[in-house]
Amino acid sequence: MSELTDYGSNGLIGVLTPQANTTVEPELWALLQPGWSLVNARLTSDKGTIAERLVDYTTRFADTSDAFANAPLDVVAAACTGASYLIGLDSELQITEEVEARRGVPFLTAALASVAMLRAMDAKKVALLTPYPESLNRHCIPYWETHGFEITHHLGPTLREEAFHPIYSLAGDAVLDSYRELAKSGADAILMLGTGMATLRPLLIGHQEGLPPATSCNLALAWACAQRKPWHQLGDGGVADWIDTATWAQRANACFGWAD
Questions:
Q1: For domain 11-256, is the CATH number 3.40.190.150?
Q2: Cα 139 from Cα 78, distance rounded (Å)
Q3: Which residues are registered as beta bridge partners of 17?
Q4: Can you give the pTM of this predicted structure?
Q5: First vs last Cα of the chain: how many Å apart?
């Protein structure tokens, strides 16, 4: 139980978010159950390309978490899925251990949280709804295969290269269209990638339409953080209620002014 009383009585999450990401915080606030709170620290890098920045962020996970000082965190979360593909599983696990030793609480990456949630869903065949350019998909798909998933399809909306950030500026309607297309893939589950892609409205509408089960990296991260456990100890965690939106639909609709 958290040391906090008014805000965060059930738990406090320290979230590490890429510097220009405009999606993580609003989605996590909508997803987190009553009594949970979060504080955010921005991962920064002056590297020239997205791939270089993603890798650079991973070298800063531990140091950036120091920005939380002695806040009574229950878990630290890195909301940066793409970085995991580029550094590989061995490096990701090593960094996870380093941050956990430094902070004394579980450290969860969005990618490892997604792995755990797919396993809790008993998903073997997975279709990826990916906002990434093919240069990153080449690293992305082997990452999920390393964890034992069969990637049946990957598909994503067209990126707006002229926007401030191609992924963060994607509209939810475009994501929903890709979800509907991947619903025909025959996969056990659909994973919406990228913590910067807006996913909550597509997930809500897709559930209402009876589309195949889907999760996103932010949904998986919130589900995992609520368990307060290292990623390899994550269990069911009421996964069915998270997937069918029962634990968060009302809050999301209220937060963003959507009709129920």
A1: no
A2: 19
A3: 42
A4: 0.92
A5: 32
